Amino acid sequence: MSAPLSNPMHGPSAFKIGVFSANADGGLSFTTVPERWTAQWDDVERAAIIADRGGFDFFLPIARWKGFGGAMKVREWSFETFTFAAALAAVTTRIALFMTVHVPLVHPLYAAKALATVDHISHGRAGLNIVCGWNPDEFAMFGMRLGEAPYEQAAEWSEILVRLYNEPAPFDYDGRYYQLRQAVSRPAALQSPRPVTMNAAFGPPGRDFAARHCDYLFTTFTDLETGRQHVADVQARGSAAGREIGVYTVAHVVCRETEREAREYYDHYARLHADNGALDYHMSRKQDFSRSHDDAAYRLHRQRFAAGGGSYPLVGTPEQIVAEMVRMEASGFRGAALTFVNYADELPFFCERVIPLMREAGLRVPA
Ligand SMILES: Cc1cc2nc3c(=O)[nH]c(=O)nc-3n(C[C@H](O)[C@H](O)[C@H](O)COP(=O)(O)O)c2cc1C
């Protein structure tokens, strides 16, 4: 459908924007409002086309196998991310298409072939988001437990992926987690030495893994000052590994003509109509098994978890949202993956009203 082009993640905009978690029920929210996202395929496709035509840089799915219960069975419904990206590659022309893969659940040889397939279908727009996972209930469905040192396994996994694309001949691999005989995978990805990669993590082992093996860390932050320190820490880990690493984050958006409308809707969907059963379960399991947030976040920001999985709020007028993104960029973030209560309904307003202001503010260059 499209001529070969370079991956939009290499584009010139100072602050890149993506859409996160549109493949899953609820997006990233825990709410019972009737307009909530149910991730029906036709709606997902519409949202991706709006983002593609409207100037977004990337489309990034969440990797989920099991939901969090509650009144809405939040996140139980989610589309698998390789096949998802392949389908979107056929209906979009310029946006980068990420796949999110659980290292312990997907063999690197399978991932290399699937990722290369999407890279060819999309003419070089594929991206890989590497996650180690955190939900023991999800792993139990595979008959597995969470690993002791997941990022050690992820390092071997990543090394194998790169070698599969770049070794001229079949090779043997003898690691702690993988033993391969005469491994080969063709075609190689179009992007060299591999498609763009990010690692979604928060804690020190994840930061180090990203610094050594990925182009970007995808992470959370609670306030701009701790966010700035987080970025500086990750960049220092990159420098120690002799690499440059970009840091992306995640934010939930409620953008309206007036601040009052935005704040009222934020309260409506994420406080008055929170899906508290699913939210309680999610927050307690995340606190026990994941380090993907500051400890304080669980105590202080329940509404942020209901609104967007504990991500940063961008709530207000287009001008206020751009001013906040200017501060995020000044804190060192290279971009953000955004979530909405209803992506297909809300993305057009964002593209029309926010993106032009981002250009005026110097965050973006025209597509
Ligand atoms: C921004 C962000 C996005 C994440 N996305 C996913 C995901 O799609 N699926 C998943 O199972 N875990 C996801 N995680 C959790 C990570 O897989 C990781 O296991 C968790 O953050 C554990 O702590 P660590 O970050 O210190 O490794 C995400 C984490 C962050 C920070």
Folded structure, characterized:
The protein is 44% helix and 16% strand. The chain has helices at 41-54, 81-91, 108-121, 136-141, 150-166, 204-213, 224-240, 259-272, 276-289, 295-300, 302-308, 318-330, 343-360, and strands at residues 16-20, 58-60, 96-102, 126-131, 171-174, 179-183, 196-200, 216-219, 246-255, 312-316, 335-339. The strands form two sheets. The protein has an eight-stranded parallel β-barrel with strand order 1-2-3-4-7-8-9-11, surrounded by nine helices. The chain is built from 13 helices and eleven strands. The protein has one domain (8-360): Luciferase-like domain (TIM Barrel). The two termini are 19 Å apart. Helix 6 links the parallel strand 7 and strand 8. The protein is globular, with a radius of gyration of 19 Å. The protein has 367 residues and is an alpha/beta fold. The protein binds flavin mononucleotide (FMN). Residues 62-63, 100, 131-134, 200-203, 206, 218-220, 250, 290-292 line the site of flavin mononucleotide (FMN).
List the domain count as a whole number.
Answer: 1
> Which small compounds were modeled alongside the protein?
flavin mononucleotide
CATH topology: TIM Barrel
What general form does the structure show?
Answer: globular
Q: Please outline the major beta sheet.
A: 8 strands, parallel, barrel
CATH superfamily grouping: Luciferase-like domain
Helix % is 40-55%
Order of helices and strands, N to C? Answer: EHEHEHEHHEEEHEHEHHHHEHEH
Query: Could you tell me the strand content as a percent range?
Result: 15-25%
Structural class: alpha/beta
Span between termini: 19 Å
Mean pLDDT: 95
Q: What is the CATH domain class?
A: Alpha Beta
Count of distinct strands: 11
Number of separate helices: 13
Low-confidence sequence ranges: none
Radius of gyration, rounded? 19 Å
Task: Tell me which CATH architecture applies here.
Answer: Alpha-Beta Barrel
